[in-house]
Amino acid sequence: MHLIQLNRECLLHLFSFLDKDSRKSLSLTCHQLREVFLDPCLWNLLHFSSPCQLRKDNFVLGPSLRYLTISWYSSMVLKVCNIEDWLKSSFQKNICSKHESLVSTFLAHVCYMCPNLLSLTMSGCGHITDRDVISVLQCCRKLRYLHLENCVRITDCSLEGVVAHGDNLEEVKVDFCRNITQAGLQHCKEMKPALQLTAERSADLIPDSKPEERVPIRRTLQKVLQNS
Prior knowledge:
CATH topology of the largest domain: Leucine-rich repeat, LRR (right-handed beta-alpha superhelix)
Distance between the termini: 57 Å
Number of domains: 2
């Protein structure tokens, strides 16, 4: 029996064992397998290990997506992306300019195309903002799990978004997000007592400063050590 003689259900099952690149390669062999690749039912889980993977066309966004993870474990995150914009050199700004909008743009597509998302994990996404998180909360109303780790631009505004729009949220983690405060965490816990909210180290880290602030040298050194 040839592969294409299998029924649609069997082909979907076989495709489910392949990674994104392998699925894409197989879909290029014939029209029938291309249709299987484009079937939204195949894409209930997506995992990306760097923002550049979001540029590829080896996946499909659709209403079947339930679990989404974007994790970037790279020294570039600590040494470049996590630095406040006003402290970055022109070289660092140039590096960031090549990828800083990738995750935000991708999340905008998720908001439009994936209303049934249940779980969102983002780690090392140094350029996402509160607006990105709040948009997901507003559009993906079935979201149950939100995990943000080392997302330095996330502030208490995202926690306010959790309170306002996270009706079905069961668990929220904001780990190593330096601009989350203890006051913001406390307010979220008071407003949503049933929510499982954790924040490893977030409220203990040194938050961002503004250009006009006179930052003590000692504080600057402490921050450098945290990011090293």
